[in-house]
């Protein structure tokens, strides 16, 4: 068995174990296998093992893989876009993604919706929150999240469904240090749901947790964990163009 398949099974099993230990239904938690910087063959291996949800960070790279998969007749792969999204790349992002997890400003939501209307496609999105207020990170600050959600709601962007929140806490050596950030994101999602700011306020998605801390994120309520290294191994360094 390839390492990727072995690791996928291992992470899937870990998710179940942690969920059951903290009294959650494992079915509530989806694994986004983050395949950024790995070739399309890594995705194909995952698909063969029955896993079809992948995370990508770079639009051009994601679009190339999407085309390769489509050209080989593969239709099961679903891509969550989890990278920083520039407005001029939203057309491609809208076309290839099954979810965009990193919407953090009104303009982006607006432009995305315009492309989605043209594509006649509805898209699930998450609002990226900069929960640690780290100036090097994208995402709306937690205190500004309500205004952003309200603004998006007021615009009546017909082809966007706001499913929940996503975050990347500050990188810390100890996974436990991420716990308060995960907890804060969950609390924020509950406050926003009480104000009916999501498309479905009964079922909120929380995308949080990566290879080093997904167990903590699940204990704090994650419904999507984004795991790369623990599945695919160390990422190749970025090639210079
Ligand atoms: C790369 C990346 C991940 C995966 O990180 P690992 O530590 O490799 O699991 C998750 N989320 C985002 C937003 C990423 O950019």
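-> sequence recovered:
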């Amino acid at each position: 068995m390839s390492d990727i398949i072995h690791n996928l099974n291992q992470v899937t099993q870990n998710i179940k174990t942690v969920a059951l230990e903290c009294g959650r239904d494992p079915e509530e938690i989806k694994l986004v296998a983050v395949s950024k910087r790995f070739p399309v063959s890594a995705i194909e291996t995952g698909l063969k093992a029955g896993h079809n949800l992948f995370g990508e960070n770079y639009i051009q790279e994601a679009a190339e893989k999407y085309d390769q998969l489509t050209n080989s007749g593969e239709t099961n792969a679903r891509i969550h876009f989890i990278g920083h999204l520039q407005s001029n790349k939203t057309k491609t992002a809208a076309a290839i993604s099954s979810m965009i997890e990193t919407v953090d400003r009104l303009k982006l939501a607006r432009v995305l919706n315009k492309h989605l209307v043209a594509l006649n496609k509805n898209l699930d999105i998450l609002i990226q929150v900069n929960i640690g207020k780290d100036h090097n990170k994208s995402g709306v600050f937690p205190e500004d999240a309500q205004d952003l959600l309200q603004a998006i709601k007021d615009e009546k962007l017909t082809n966007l469904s706001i499913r929940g929140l996503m975050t990347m806490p500050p990188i810390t050596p100890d996974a436990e240090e991420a716990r308060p950030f995960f907890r804060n994101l969950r609390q924020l999602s509950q406050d926003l749901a009480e104000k009916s700011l999501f498309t479905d306020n009964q079922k909120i998605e929380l995308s949080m947790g990566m290879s080093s801390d997904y167990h903590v994120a699940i204990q704090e309520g994650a419904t999507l964990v984004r795991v790369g290294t623990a599945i695919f191994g160390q990422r190749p360094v970025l090639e210079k163009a």
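The longest strand covers residues 160-167.
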